[in-house]
Amino acid sequence: MSIASSSPPTSRGDGRLAAVFLAPALLGFLVFLLWPTLRGVYLSFTRFNLLTPAEWVGLDNYVRMVNDPIFWDSLQVTVAYVVINIGVQTVAALAIAVLLQRLTQSAVLRGIVLTPYLMSNVVAGIVWLWILDTQLGVGNEIVTALGADRIPFLADETWSIPTIALINVWRHVGYTALLLFAGLQAIPQHLYEAAKVDGAGEWRMFWRITLPLLRPVLAVVLIMTVIGSFQVFDTVAVTTMGGPANATNVLQYYIYGSAFGRFQFGYASAMSVALLIVLTAITVLQYRLTRAGRTDLG
Amino acid sequence: MAAVATTTVTTVRRTRRRPPLGRAVAWAVMAAIVLVTLLPFYWILRTALSTNTGLAAQPADLLPVDFTTGGFERALGLQSTEEAIAQGGSGAGLAFWRYLLNSVLVSTLITACQIFFSAMAAYAFSRLRWRGRDKVFGLFLAGLMVPTIFTLLPNFVLIKELGLVDTLLGIALPTMFMTPFAVFFLRQFFMNIPREVEEAALLDGAGKVRVFFRVLLPMASTPVLTLAVLTYITSWNDYFWPLMVSYSDSSRVLSVALAVFRAQTPQTGTDWSGLMAATLIAALPMLVLFGLFARRIVGSIGFTGIK
């Protein structure tokens, strides 16, 4: 490697060295990210069952998708999940982050809040499946102790989506709170001190200082978590398997079933493209609405 | 001294302005959050150490019912089939150690390679000068916009074409070389290291390769460690992709095995004791890993990579 000689860094380019350093990552990028993305779009215009070569069918898959009631139902279920999941998670994460910031700087507490995130979705799903079991779950023991009837949390059409949404809140809220907490650290402390001198209470400071100054960070976190939320699969796969009566048949679960259950890779790809378009649209929209790129500081 | 004085004044103000009641309520909320966060972990342990018949009889007992290690024995495959069935297990064999080894191999392979290659790329994007650098980096950034889930189906087709279905390499390959996030995260960090540090080493006659390994990487040890631990946890916990790629015990990882265990319901109802024991064993390595590095990681989770 002749380039690694002792010349000052500013005198010439590092083309060859850069090529060596970049090669593995670029290979991975091209082969396992760019190519599959393009191929996913291509496959959505084909009929493909893995065994015989893909056959071009034009817009057939998309026409089928638009006329597929299960697809629309699935999209609706997914949106309901995302709304509950993100709504509850964002409020809870914000509350935890602010409590962490205003009450204590304890790293131990932050570590504790993060622990559910160390579990897999599979583990979280199974644990809550047990806790919320209609007959034997301790959750239902608490419900009956409070005087209510047993709730079939994961076995009922109305309860199952909110339950799954909340299980995932349990797993992700700590991580989200830590991201927000990091954003809170950037808010100058003297603003709070000045506000206190002016006689403002905690509640007022939250609305007047914390929330406006956290907005750019909150916006990015929101975009990230919404995108993640739309991809829900694991929890459904271990707890309800799409049931009861398709009540938790989220889009990703339907896509998986189409591809690996019915070997309709073309149709599955078309639905993936639809999800990609939805996610891109939401990202752009959220970015615009929340002015994520701009800050109120300074 | 002035700073100290100011702090005292504000503390005095704080105690006067903020009634202790508000603070007490805030602490109570925090305590409730900690409880909801941690209780499920205790419940896993309590269930794993109970017998299935005991669980049915005493569903709300806070302590293990009929204390037993049978659940763990079943999860680890230490019980005979008859014994397992008698205690409410399915009796189906579970090659637990095999899955554990598979999980360790896959996660280690992904983490080591991904972080190393991403760091190299991040160095090329932040410290080396070459034509087209910003354009190529822009392309990587665009990669951040593609949700992982979109690439899974086509990647499965590719892995199948490569003949790597049902192999550990097949599971590791797509994330082994880089993720746009890792490259972005590390580049951001390298950019913040003062150039002087590097130039001093270069003037001392060190080559750029040497500077990267001996100066920049060690300086970036905390973000690299954070990223590595998070990557390890993510690949350990991944379920969807290994579910697609692996079909048999030879490549089955713990997360998939756990879901299979859950699906093997014995005739008498779910073997909750064994299932919770298996869950605990699958989750424990990540708890330990996190415990070892928590002090260094907790502080560096934030927007270093995104903002």
Secondary structure elements and pairings:
The complex is a heterodimer of chains A (298) and B (307).
Chain A: H1 15-43, E1 46-47, E2 55-56, H2 60-66, H3 69-103, H4 107-118, H5 121-131, H6 138-145, H7 160-185, H8 189-197, H9 202-230, H10 234-239, H11 251-261, H12 265-290
Antiparallel strand pairs in A: 1-2
Helix pairs in contact in A: 2-12, 3-7, 3-9, 4-7, 5-7, 7-9, 9-12, 11-12
Chain B: H1 2-17, H2 20-48, H3 52-57, H4 70-75, H5 81-86, H6 96-126, H7 133-143, H8 148-161, H9 168-176, H10 180-191, H11 195-203, H12 208-219, H13 221-237, H14 240-245, H15 254-263, H16 272-298
Helix pairs in contact in B: 2-16, 6-9, 6-10, 6-13, 11-12, 13-16, 15-16
Walkthrough of the structure:
Chain A: Keywords: Cell membrane, Membrane, Transmembrane, Transmembrane helix, Transport. Chain A: Its main location: membrane. Chain A: It comes from Streptomyces spinoverrucosus. Chain A: It is a multi-pass membrane protein. Chain A: This is Sugar ABC transporter permease. The complex is a heterodimer of chains A (298) and B (307). Chain A has 298 residues and is mostly helical. Chain A has one domain: Orthogonal Bundle (MetI-like fold). Chain A is 70% helix and 1% strand. Chain A is built from 12 helices and 2 strands; from the N terminus they run αββααααααααααα. In chain A, strands 1-2 form a two-stranded antiparallel ribbon. In chain A, α2 crosses α12, α5 crosses α7 and α11 packs antiparallel against α12. Chain A is globular. Chain B starts with a helix and ends in a 9-residue tail after the last helix. Chain B contains 16 helices and no strands. Chain B is mainly alpha-helical and 307 residues long. Chain B is globular, with a radius of gyration of 25 Å. Chain B has 2 domains: 73 residues, no CATH class; 168 residues, Orthogonal Bundle (MetI-like fold), CATH 1.10.3720. Chains A and B meet through α1, α3, α4, α5 and α6 of A and α1, α2, α6, α7 and α8 of B.
